[in-house]
Design a protein that fits this description.
The complex is a heterodimer of chains A (327) and B (342). With 327 residues, chain A is mostly helical. Chain A contains 14 helices and four strands. In chain A, helix 3 packs across helix 11, helix 4 crosses helix 11 and helix 5 runs antiparallel to helix 6. Classes of the chains: A mainly alpha (327), B mainly alpha (342).
């Protein structure tokens, strides 16, 4: 991991510090990279849903529940926020509904994995399918036909760079605070210790009087809340709901969690890195690099490829929770 | 006494699950203003009620059955091949690319071979990483699915694009490269691709039951450590199981494109690889049961589109039903396993 970080820093320095001639491919790349850094608000708003979902993955996987259902929970939350906004026109009520809907899905996840002891992968797939179908059904049934502008959560301006204001939404701000809070919680609190204990050795935890299923209940409720925030953020940024609007973001968040070694701060860093490349892609669209069109798909597949490489152990040892997926 | 009590309790738990699932679906139908019995009737009639309806269901059945074989094969080795979706996609594109260059029957054979090889290659990293690095195959296959979608999209928008078309797609296959129908009586049509699926399902049953390799695969799936003590190398078995499963997945995509779609475009698979997980779970450990299980999923796919029009029920309801079926199938499986352990 450390070697990878050094490599990234070296690449960035090469792009930014070398005086590439204007108009050359590298010169354009440098301008685009500088543009991303000049608009941290945009960068953060792209990364924030990933960060929030990855933190949801953290609280669940650290207690031992494999969570490939982040995608479905986010999607449910985005749809709930949309429908609640149509009916109440109140973005705060929408946020409440988004949290409730994602938490309900997470509770279903808990029932399936703990009460019914179903395989975590199967229950995750099932929850994704149910979320995909239910959001399609609900939005198809209650979609707002008139294209009125829906109210979303307020944003505020946090300073400016070169006259361009940095707009930050409340949820973006939470995405900065929650990873730090989770780090402190995991490191310094009794609850954090229990979370790690259950995720690493549920049998010993049971002997010590810690009920794994109860700890997992809190972990999954937290997952519901964080993925709910992520889903509400997706809805807020788009101002509407479209089918399958998560478009794999839940899986990218999971990838970031794995890449970050199931730790909140490194996972946060991975999300910011993925967000960086997505923002860069917006700037690079339609640009030729070394005389060839670089397809947008090359950038989009980066998180997935890096994760495969990391799982192959080429970025150092990964340390998954030892009892991930065990009852 | 306690075992009997446990069984009773787990029966209750299972019953609760089934009743809750039925209530959710019926509730959703009522909410949509449709009569549940009417919707069920429409679903059955529009998927099996006439020769053309049945042909449509058999068409859906073909990719579901083939992908189901792929998933079940890996499942018997203790592997979740969630990556069939990606293997299906790269297999289909590889097959079209070959069949566009080699016309006629030769193109069909070479295309299917290319599809199977592409699918196997796409599954290989997941198997190898699981066997030699311990990385969970579910995560790698999910990542590979996404890469497969992006890669094939980039290819059909770029080098493999039909220049005559505005939207990204490959050229259409010539009619000589279509997989022929084996049954074509009036409106009823059944592709020879479905026959391949049925043969593969039977073949898998025979292979698992009667060959050393099949026995080794199931031994590793049941208990890798015990298999190792018996002189089987679990890592080799895991890699080859994933390769075989991927090859079937790639073949499924090839057959789907040769028999039905005749060209490749972004979003080619409408989730057959994912549905196949449900198909395989519902079939349990018996490859022969893949046929009824895939047929049920095919009916839901075909009929779901129809009730959207007939009863104004959004199609998402069938996806919910699929999800609930997966849960119930898994719960039954777990119950049987618990009963076997008791």
């Amino acid at each position: 991991m450390r070697r990878a970080l050094i490599a990234i820093a070296a690449l960035l320095a090469m792009v930014l510090l070398v005086p590439w001639p204007e108009g050359s491919a590298m010169g354009q790349l440098r301008a685009s990279v500088a543009n991303v850094f000049a608009q941290p608000g945009v960068w953060l708003s792209i990364s924030a849903p990933l960060i929030l979902a990855a933190m949801g993955g953290f609280t669940s996987e650290r207690t031992g529940v494999i969570n490939i259902a982040l995608e479905g929970k986010m999607l449910t939350a985005a749809c709930a926020a949309y429908l609640a906004t149509i009916f109440t026109h109140n973005p705060w009520a929408a946020l409440g509904f988004a949290l409730a809907a994602a938490t309900a899905m997470s509770l279903l996840h808990w029932v399936l994995t703990q009460t019914y002891q179903l395989d975590h992968v199967i229950s995750g797939m099932a929850i994704n399918a149910i979320a995909l179908g239910a959001t399609n059904y609900m939005s198809g049934k209650y979609a707002d036909q008139g294209a009125t502008e829906l109210p979303v959560l307020p944003s505020f301006t946090a300073g400016s760079i070169k006259g361009i204001p940095i707009t930050v939404s409340i949820l973006s701000l939470l995405a900065l605070l929650i990873p730090v809070a989770l780090f402190l919680f995991a490191r310094f609190s009794r609850g954090g210790l229990r979370m790690f204990a259950v995720g690493n050795d549920p049998d010993k935890s049971r002997l010590m009087g810690v009920q794994p299923s109860r700890v997992r209940l809190s972990g999954l409720i937290a997952t519901g809340i964080f993925t709910g925030l992520a889903g509400d953020m997706l809805f807020s940024s788009a101002g509407q709901f479209t089918n399958e609007m998560t478009a794999g973001k839940g899986f990218i968040a999971l990838a970031a969690l794995i890449l970050g070694g199931w730790k909140p701060l490194p996972a946060f860093g991975a999300c910011m890195a993925f967000g960086f490349f997505q923002a860069l892609q917006l700037h690079l669209q339609g640009m030729k690099i070394a005389g060839a069109d670089l397809p947008a798909e090359a950038f989009s597949s980066l998180p997935y490829l890096v994760t495969i490489i990391a799982l192959a152990g080429l970025l150092g040892r990964s340390n998954a929770p030892a009892a991930l997926g065990k009852p | 006494m306690s075992i009997a009590l446990d069984r009773l309790r787990s029966s209750w738990a299972l019953a609760t699950l089934v009743i809750a699932s039925v209530l959710v679906v019926v509730g959703a139908l009522v909410l949509a203003g449709a009569s549940p019995s009417r919707a069920l009737w429409d679903l059955v009639i529009s998927s099996t009620g006439s020769a053309s309806a049945l042909s449509g269901t058999l068409r859906e059945l073909t990719p579901l059955l083939l992908s189901g074989v792929a998933v079940l094969l890996a499942l018997r080795a203790g592997l979740f091949n969630i990556g069939v979706e990606g293997q299906f996609t790269v297999g289909a594109l590889a097959c079209v690319s070959v069949a566009l260059r080699v016309p006629g029957a030769g193109g069909i054979v070479l295309g299917m071979a290319a599809g199977a090889v592409a699918g196997a290659l796409w599954a290989w990293p997941a198997g190898a990483i699981r066997a030699y690095r311990g990385g969970h195959e579910v995560i790698t296959t999910i990542m590979l699915n996404n890469v497969a979608g992006l890669l094939t999209t980039a290819l059909v928008a770029g080098p493999l694009k039909d220049p005559a078309e505005g939207s990204p797609t490959t050229e259409m296959l010539p009619a000589s490269s279509y997989l022929p129908n084996i049954v074509s009586i009036g409106g009823l049509q059944m592709s020879s691709g479905l026959l391949v699926g049925i043969l593969l399902a039977c073949g898998l049953w025979w292979w698992l039951k009667r060959t050393v390799a099949g026995y080794e695969l199931q031994a590793v799936g049941a208990n890798p450590r015990a298999a190792q003590f018996a002189g089987i190398d679990p890592r080799r078995v895991v890699v080859t199981a994933m390769l075989r499963s991927g090859a079937v997945g790639g073949l499924a995509g090839s057959i789907y494109v040769l028999a039905f779609e005749h060209h490749f475009y972004p979003g080619f698979s409408s989730g057959y690889g994912f549905d196949a997980l449900g198909v395989a779970l519902l079939a349990g450990s018996a490859p022969i049961l893949l046929l009824p299980s895939a047929f049920l999923f095919a009916m839901l796919n075909k009929g779901g589109t129809a009730i959207q029009v007939l009863d104004q029920v959004p199609k998402g309801i069938t996806t919910v039903i699929l999800g609930l079926l997966i849960v119930i199938a898994a719960a039954i499986r777990y119950r049987n396993k618990a009963a076997a352990n008791a």
